[in-house]
Amino acid sequence: MTRRPAIVLLSGGLDSTTVLAIAKDMDYAAYALSFRYGQRHSVELEAAKRVAAAQRVERHVVADIDLRVFGASALTADIDVPKHESLDDAGRQAPGSSVPVTYVPARNTIFLSFALAYAETVGASDVFTGVNAVDYSGYPDCRPEYMEAYEHMANLATRAGVEGTQRLKIHSPLIAMSKADIVREGLRLGVDYSQTSSCYDPNEQGLACGHCETCLLRLKGFAEAGVPDPVQYQGA
């Protein structure tokens, strides 16, 4: 029996790598989609390539878009990535009350739009994304209501949807999971997290800073899961 195709948004970080493993475990034929969008932490693309090869995806596409033309984010403009000693020191707010400077305007909407186009071309009715609404940075496009709204819109937006040959489903299996639960699930599925890269401000050698919010969230997840993080950190 032919496996159903699915598009998996793959950044090369902890969450998206876990989602790819989940899609494979569900017996989907995974088509990975990554983006070179002008991000300063482009080392993540090398991680995405490693992960895609290790998990033997059907195809790995890297789409080129330049979000630097808009700026307004520490990931795409000349704005310092905030560093902290701990998540408490970061002064994290409740979801929706404060959007950090690492937010890239409309990034998930842009990425999902590319995924929607890719899905239509390969005949896929399923898109997997690693958005998370528990241990995350408060980005507005990671909320469950956003994902539900996008799925509804997507089914009005394509020829395949209008003609009834595709009913798109956006899978967000991590959305209600803690980082620790995500780590545990990935390890259960045999994910090699040493291949991943989560840091928003790695050095020239690709070593994680250990102090940006995404590093702190990742370290928290591994600590609470009771296993060491296998990636290298600066100064370690």
TrEMBL record:
Gene3D superfamilies: HUPs (3.40.50.620). Its EC number is 6.3.4.20. GO terms for molecular function: ATP binding; ligase activity, forming carbon-nitrogen bonds; zinc ion binding. ATP binds at residues 10-20. Keywords: ATP-binding, Ligase, Metal-binding, Nucleotide-binding, Queuosine biosynthesis, Zinc. Pathway: Purine metabolism; 7-cyano-7-deazaguanine biosynthesis. It is an enzyme of class 6 (ligase). Pfam families: QueC. Binds 1 zinc ion per subunit. InterPro entries: QueC, Rossmann-like_a/b/a_fold. It catalyses: 7-carboxy-7-carbaguanine + NH4(+) + 2 ATP = 7-cyano-7-carbaguanine + 2 AMP + 2 diphosphate + 2 H(+). It comes from the Bacteria. Zn(2+) binds at residues 199, 209, 212, 215. Its cofactor is Zn(2+). One of its GO terms (biological process) is tRNA queuosine(34) biosynthetic process. Catalyzes the ATP-dependent conversion of 7-carboxy-7-deazaguanine (CDG) to 7-cyano-7-deazaguanine (preQ(0)). Belongs to the QueC family. This is 7-cyano-7-deazaguanine synthase.
